[in-house]
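Re: [ENG-882] Designed sequences occasionally contain unexpected residues at chain ends

Forwarding the minimal case from QA. Structure tokens:
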């Protein structure tokens, strides 16, 4: 009997200023691409600093269904993955539909076994999420891919992928990861032009090099991979989660106070920190990470456009909007990465925000204060932006459907309450 999705809510009573330290976990979006890398070798891959999240459990379940074993140790902070012998190359819809990152097994399966059947994830709340950039790139590397009954049926012609020069029309994060992993075992050299430059790409390349891969240029828009015959095991520490970091940096910015983010690194979020600075929020580096200090005066309006790294991250757009709801002046937010990523706006409007959404542009006119209300989480990042808004709103804010939160934020209630927020999780009756 499948466990019903919990419909827990989170209750926030606004008005507390925040003081103290918040530890930042390993990056969900790095871990979700590092875990499938275990398929590239029959030797063990150990990942440390892994985040404790439901998405990691879903990836563990998916890899298990393929015959790879992932053991979680030390309370989930260490993942020991291994994959011996022949494996099942079919990634079932029932798991893939729960998490789009499941599509990151396509490249590794093709590289290891020469064929794969991976369900298309289907759309999600924020957009259609197509995979054309992934499949066009793999086709250039000698894969035959056709879509049948909702599954991508992929086969490497001659049983082996070969190196190719691939020009991406858009710097897709997932496509860069899939192609990079596939190319490590291809025959010859692969070049990805217009590759994604996110820190999670650099983290994956670092791990693959530790496994014996030959990769150069990660972090730039041109990545070159020389295929090798085999990869060996490795131990790799997952990079800090820059999206969790940015999310918690906004807590003192919105509620006032002074919070130190343990493990925070300014190089992971330069564009985001520039916007905080323009809004009047001071960010300083400490020996343990980053410190954000803000007295309870109003912040200044700023304009934000989401872009591939090193631009402003789309995964922090909803959280930034929560800050700008009470800034002095009018802010314009342009969402350039996903086609439908303003679902937090109607919920913030229920709290008294003044937001006008037209297509990919949201215009936020600052109000003095938001008012607590019953609101609904719609996707992972929208849900946490509602909690952030509740920190400074008058009265109580109750965020429903917080299972979205559990996908990307570990121990969210204790991390907020640990710095003085009045917040609790209400288990559905
Ligand atoms: C990754 O998704 C992240 N997920 C997303 O984080 C993040 O928002 C996104 O990168 C952008 O930074 C993981 O890493 C697991 P893309 P991904 O391929 O790889 C279009 C979160 O909240 N596109 O860079 O799917 C696509 O539709 C999640 O943690 C194509 O058109 O992102 C989208 O509009 C949400 N064809 C845009 O590119 C393709 O073949 C960005 O997609 C692939 C993508």
């Amino acid at each position: 009997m499948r466990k019903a999705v919990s419909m827990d809510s989170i209750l926030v009573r606004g008005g507390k200023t925040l003081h103290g330290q918040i530890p930042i976990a390993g990056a969900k979006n790095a871990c979700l691409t590092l875990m499938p890398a275990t398929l590239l070798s029959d030797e063990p891959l150990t990942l440390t600093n892994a985040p404790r999240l439901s998405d990691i459990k879903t990836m563990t379940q998916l890899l298990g269904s393929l015959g790879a074993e992932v053991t979680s140790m030390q309370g989930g902070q260490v993942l020991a993955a291994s994959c011996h012998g022949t494996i099942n190359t079919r990634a079932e819809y029932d798991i893939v539909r729960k998490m789009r990152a499941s599509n990151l097994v396509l490249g590794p399966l093709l590289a290891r076994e020469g064929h794969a059947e991976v369900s298309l994830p289907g759309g999600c709340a924020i957009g259609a999420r197509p995979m054309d950039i992934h499949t066009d790139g793999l086709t250039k590397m000698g894969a035959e891919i056709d879509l049948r009954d909702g599954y991508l049926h992929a086969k490497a012609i001659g049983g082996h992928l070969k190196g190719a020069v691939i020009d991406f029309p858009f710097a897709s994060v997932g496509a860069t990861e899939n192609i990079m992993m596939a190319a490590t075992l291809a025959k010859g050299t692969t070049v990805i032009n217009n590759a994604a430059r996110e820190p999670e790409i650099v983290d994956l390349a670092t791990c693959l090099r530790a496994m014996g891969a030959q990769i150069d240029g990660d972090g730039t828009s041109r990545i070159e991979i020389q295929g090798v015959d085999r990869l060996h095991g490795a131990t790799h520490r997952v990079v800090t989660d820059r999206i969790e970091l940015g999310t918690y940096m906004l807590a003192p910015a919105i509620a006032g106070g002074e919070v130190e983010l343990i493990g925070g690194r300014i190089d992971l979020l330069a564009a985001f920190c520039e916007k905080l600075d323009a809004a009047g929020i001071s960010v300083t580096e400490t020996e343990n990470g980053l410190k954000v200090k803000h007295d309870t005066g109003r912040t200044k309006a700023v304009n934000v456009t989401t872009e591939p790294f090193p631009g402003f991250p789309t995964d922090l757009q909803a959280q930034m909007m929560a800050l700008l709801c009470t800034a002095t002046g009018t802010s314009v937010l342009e969402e350039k990465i996903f086609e439908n990523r303003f679902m937090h706006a109607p919920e913030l409007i229920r709290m008294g925000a003044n937001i006008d959404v037209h297509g990919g542009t949201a215009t936020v006119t600052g109000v003095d204060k938001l008012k607590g209300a019953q609101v609904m989480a719609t996707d992972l990042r929208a849900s946490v932006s509602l909690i952030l808004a509740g920190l400074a709103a008058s009265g109580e804010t109750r965020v429903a459907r917080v299972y979205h939160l559990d996908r990307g934020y570990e121990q969210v209630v204790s991390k907020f309450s640990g710095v003085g927020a009045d917040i609790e999780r209400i288990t559905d009756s």
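QA comment: On inspection the terminal residues look reasonable. Residues 242-255 form the longest helix (14 residues). Proposing we downgrade this to a documentation issue.
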